[in-house]
Write a structure and sequence with these properties.
The protein has 437 residues and is mostly helical. It has helices at 17-31, 33-36, 39-56, 63-83, 88-115, 118-143, 150-157, 162-173, 177-181, 185-202, 205-218, 228-247, 257-262, 264-268, 276-281, 283-296, 300-305, 335-360, 371-394, 404-419, and strands at 5-6, 60-61, 313-321, 324-329. 39% of the residues are buried.
Length: 437
């Protein structure tokens, strides 16, 4: 019988160079899984990697990792609360969406103990971003035809890979990144060029907005008790007003990225769209409306704790989706409404608590201002902001595969940050670089 025991956190593990290279390859491969395999197969690889890492560390689990995943463990308990009332297949599907998050965080957290250096981890993220961007550009060139628009091409090959967004954010968002990672200047600018090309042809509003958020946080423009919040609020409000006014144009061209941005506000607005053309144009908002009706139909315990794993959202009629007619949806684009249905009002609060914990890490002031510590905190905080926004439009961390690489990197960064709090830390763990004042 195998017993999982809590790790002795008195000192970090010693990693040999050969082992470090092996786990570096594993780390990059896991970041690229969604570019090669389906979400289900990728999840299986996460589980295999977790088992392998636990085996190599003597089946030890750190308390601080449990602190990281506690919000999702609580959501799991809420989900079990109503699971007995729903079909097993739908229950298993919802369990997978939640367990996949824990697995992605876990594999990143455990692998970091074999990498140990934040510099090494950042280099690997950028290498993975360059590989993913190159693959995306190659796919675009392979399928491109003179008569094919980028939007048609995007529907065929997808909207790129999120690790590219993170890599580009690191490359241009953090001022000292080139000196920090030690890349040759030629490779540095080549990496930026490839990642920018992938971001442009992705035609993804989520990727573009996420890239901007990552850059803002890594630049250090968002700090507590500063004018940054006011400035960002004014800018965000101005952009929202322009997008809303632009979204009122009934003659908008859906093949234009600018017009897709202008339609963003009305597209997610929760409303009962009666006309089929309006439903198609504002699908996210219609999903949210039907999910809200489903939530309001629940009793008090269901409103507080959710209707559990396997609960479905009734569209009210059969809609052709993915090549078949579907009336009941297991998941929708609006992740907050998804949380309300599955885990109730308390579930939404728990999810906000998880995001708030990530965001506030950047508020801690480091007296030493070492690059490693500042970069780690800003990177973690940027994940919080990205998840906060993306949950509204593509279910955030509950997305089928988009944010798997982000969760792996988040788990690894949290592991490194926790290692710095251990009593004995080798001098090589912290970079000698310091922030320029």
């Amino acid at each position: 019988m195998i017993r999982v025991r809590l790790a002795n956190e008195s000192s970090p593990p010693i990693v040999k160079d050969g082992s470090r290279r092996f786990f570096s390859l594993i780390f990059v491969a896991l970041l690229l899984l969604d570019a090669v395999f389906s979400a289900g197969i990728a999840s299986a690889f996460y589980v295999i990697a977790i088992v392998g890492c636990l085996f190599s560390t003597g089946w030890r689990i750190e308390r601080k990792f449990l602190n990281l995943i506690i919000p999702f463990l609580v959501l799991f308990l809420f989900g079990i609360f109503g699971a007995i009332f729903h079909p097993l297949y739908d229950v298993i599907k919802d369990v997978w969406y939640l367990v996949k998050i824990i697995c992605a965080l876990g594999v990143g957290y455990l692998l970091m103990h074999h990498l140990t250096s934040l510099q090494q981890m950042i280099r690997l993220v950028i290498v993975a971003a360059v590989i993913a961007a190159t693959l995306h550009l190659f796919q675009t060139a392979w399928y491109f035809q003179a008569s094919t628009s980028l939007f048609e091409l995007r529907n065929k090959i997808g909207g790129g890979y999120f690790v590219t967004v993170l890599g580009l954010g690191l490359l241009v968002g953090y001022k000292q990144i080139r000196k920090y990672i030690g890349f040759d200047i030629g490779f540095y600018y080549l990496a930026i060029l490839l990642c920018v090309g992938s971001l442009v042809i992705s035609m993804s509003r989520t990727n573009i907005v996420s890239f901007i958020l990552v850059c803002i946080i890594l630049r250090g423009w968002v700090r507590p008790k500063s004018k940054s919040f006011l400035i960002l609020g004014l800018l965000g409000g101005g952009v929202a007003v322009m997008l809303f006014l632009g979204g009122l144009d009934s003659n908008r061209d859906e093949t234009s990225l600018i017009n897709k941005f202008s339609h963003s506000i009305t597209e997610v607005s929760i409303s009962d769209y009666g006309d089929l053309s309006d439903i198609n144009a504002n699908w996210r908002g219609f999903e949210g409306y039907r999910a809200n009706l489903t939530y309001l139909q629940g009793n008090l315990p269901e409103k507080l704790f959710g209707q559990g794993f396997g609960s479905l959202i009734d569209l009210g009629f059969y809609m052709p989706l993915g090549g078949s007619d579907i009336r009941y949806l297991p998941i929708i684009h609006n992740g907050y409404m998804y949380l309300l249905i599955k885990f109730g009002f308390l579930g939404v609060l728990i999810y906000f608590y998880f995001i708030f914990k990530l965001i506030r890490i950047n508020w801690k002031i480091s007296t030493q201002k070492l690059v490693d510590l500042v970069l780690a905190r800003r990177l973690i905080s940027s994940f919080g902001w990205v998840f906060l926004v993306s949950t509204l439009v593509i279910t955030g961390v509950f997305n089928k595969s988009v944010f798997d690489s982000s969760l792996i990197i988040l788990g690894a960064t949290m592991a490194w940050l926790n290692l710095q709090n251990k009593p004995r830390i080798s001098s090589g763990r912290l970079a000698a670089l310091r922030l320029n004042n």
